């Protein structure tokens, strides 16, 4: 939008200058030879100004293009760097999560082993208690049967 306004302004200035110079030449009281000479001179001046404006616009366009290329290159580099940082963080988080999960699995296995050992111990104790009570009950039954 800004480029179009600048372009329109330059074209308007050029056309306005040519129209103004031509009008001044035609309205000034001069002989045909002088008028033709002035028109030729004004046409040459207009041609020179147009060439100069074209050159200036071309140079500015190249400058703006270079600036745009540089900024887009810097932006692309920044995006690449930030993307790599994100990838690295995700990898670190993934490795940390994996390690944490492995630790939890090992802890769960250890707890299961402890529970199994505790259950076996409790089972042995209960079994011995039941055997002992059965023996006591048999003794009492034998004693009661003898009486």
Automatic annotation (TrEMBL):
Residues 118-147 are annotated as: Disordered. Keywords: Membrane, Transmembrane, Transmembrane helix. It comes from the Bacteria. InterPro entries: Desiccation-related_membrane, YtxH. Residues 130-141 have a biased composition (Basic and acidic residues). It holds the Pfam family YtxH. The keyword Transferase does not apply. The chain crosses the membrane at residues 9-28. The keyword ATP-binding does not apply. Signal peptide: none annotated. This is Gas vesicle protein.
């Amino acid at each position: 939008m800004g480029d179009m306004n600048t372009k329109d302004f330059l074209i308007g200035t050029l056309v306005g200058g040519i129209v103004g110079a031509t009008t001044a030449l035609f309205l000034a009281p001069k002989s045909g030879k002088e008028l033709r000479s002035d028109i030729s001179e004004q046409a040459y001046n207009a041609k020179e100004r147009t060439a100069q404006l074209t050159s200036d616009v071309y140079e500015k366009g190249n400058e703006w293009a270079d600036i745009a290329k540089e900024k887009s290159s810097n932006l692309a580099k920044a995006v690449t760097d930030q993307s790599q940082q994100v990838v690295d963080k995700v990898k670190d988080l993934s490795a940390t999560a994996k390690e944490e999960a492995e630790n939890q699995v090992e802890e769960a296995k250890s707890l299961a082993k402890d529970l199994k050992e505790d259950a076996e111990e409790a089972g042995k104790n209960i079994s011995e208690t039941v055997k002992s009570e059965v023996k006591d009950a048999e003794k009492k039954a034998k004693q009661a049967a003898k009486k």
